[in-house]
Amino acid sequence: MIGRLVAAAALVCFTSSVVMAQEDAVGAPGPFVLEGESFELAWTSHPTDTYYKQEYVPEGQTVEAYEQMFMVDVLTNGLSVEDAAGTMVDGLKQRQANDPVVNFAMIENEATGEIILDFVLSDSSSGTVIVEWNAYRYVPLEGGVAMFGISRRGYDEGASELLKGMKGWRKGTIEALAELELPDVVVE
């Protein structure tokens, strides 16, 4: 399961899926508003009994080709915040062998038990250069963990623009994510 989690989380933005508004499955129907941008629920998945995934994009954007996406993942298999973030870090370390852009940092909030993982990665296997920055906020749940994340992408020429611009907005976006009031996650 953990291997599938890493693969799903690390490559979520590099896979195609049919985009259609779907019903909320975790008590987080949205919209989520982060730094003035509203993200509407666009896609949901329940790939295993203990794993739920929802993706939200701004109006006019799609899950397949977005500039910004908000994500909610819920694991109800007893995984801790530390294990979920650690599994993602392990996947990023493995990815470094083939992705020179990969870089990451982890911020722990001992008072809340939360962790924010801030990372960047890239992909060009489709012929299009994609650079993606993400911040994942891991929140403990009874019996598992929820991840609330923001992703930003740049394509081809926009990839280098994304990397150059990160210095100006990265810290503020991480702070906004850390301060974001989150819904109570409920899975049936």
Task: Provide a concise account of the structure shown.
The protein has 188 residues and is α+β, with helices and mostly antiparallel strands. It has helices at 2-10, 81-95, 157-179, and strands at 32-34, 37-48, 51-57, 68-75, 103-109, 114-123, 130-141, 144-155. Strands 1-2-3-4-8-7-6-5 form an eight-stranded antiparallel sheet, sandwiched between helices.
Description:
Mean pLDDT is about 90; it is low at about 1-20. About 25% of the residues lie in helices and about 40% in strands. With about 190 residues, the chain is an alpha+beta fold. The longest helix has 23 residues, at about 155-180. The protein has helices spanning about 1-10, 80-95, 155-180, and strands at about 30-35, 35-50, 50-55, 70-75, 105-110, 115-125, 130-140, 145-155.
Write out key terms for the chains shown.
188 residues, alpha+beta, 8-stranded antiparallel beta sheet, 8 strands, disordered N terminus
Write the layout of secondary structure elements.
Blueprint: H1 2-10, E1 32-34, E2 37-48, E3 51-57, E4 68-75, H2 81-95, E5 103-109, E6 114-123, E7 130-141, E8 144-155, H3 157-179
Antiparallel strand pairs: 1-2, 2-3, 3-4, 4-8, 5-6, 6-7, 7-8
Helix pairs in contact: 1-2
